[in-house]
Amino acid sequence: MSKDVLPIEIRGVVPANAGVAIFVGNDEKVFIINVDPYIGDVIVKLMSGVQRERPLTHDLLGSVFKGFGIAVERVVITELKNATYFARLILKQQNELGQAIVELDARPSDCIALAVAHKKPMLITKSLFAKVEDMSELLTRITTSGGETE
Q1: Which 3 state secondary structure label does DSSP give 49?
Q2: Nearest by Cα to 1 from 125, 86, 107, 131
Q3: Burial class (CB in 10 A: 0-12, 13-18, 19+), 44
Q4: Per CATH, is 5-144 categorized as 3.40.50.1980?
Q5: What pTM does this model have?
Q6: What is the pLDDT of residues 64-117, one digit of tens each?
Q7: Where are the domains of the chain?
């Protein structure tokens, strides 16, 4: 794994005005990726292991990956441009001809959902991590006050 990335994990999921705030980070810093309500609900259900009656898009992708011998390797949050995060989905395909690594541009929300569903690492580039605002204090206030902020 590259030395230019740091491991991160989901630290909290909080309903927000226009969707869901996903707090991600590590012991040093936590930052927020805002996602739409649907994908926020998907991520929460994946984290809690809730069984779904019918497959969702991320379940379908997982089935397609499995059918073609593809596995999610990791996801990397790479950039922030105009208040929008960008990410890369790293896949590995293994078959009788060998192994191939494929890197795809993807929404961070989809990457997070796939990482949770497949229990794979989430990473952030060191350069981006240095730029994001630390929201650890906000997360602590929200979790200790039961969701109320000042």
Answers
A1: coil
A2: 125
A3: middle
A4: no
A5: 0.89
A6: 999 999 999 999 999 999 999 999 999 999 888 889 999 999 999 999 999 999
A7: 5-144
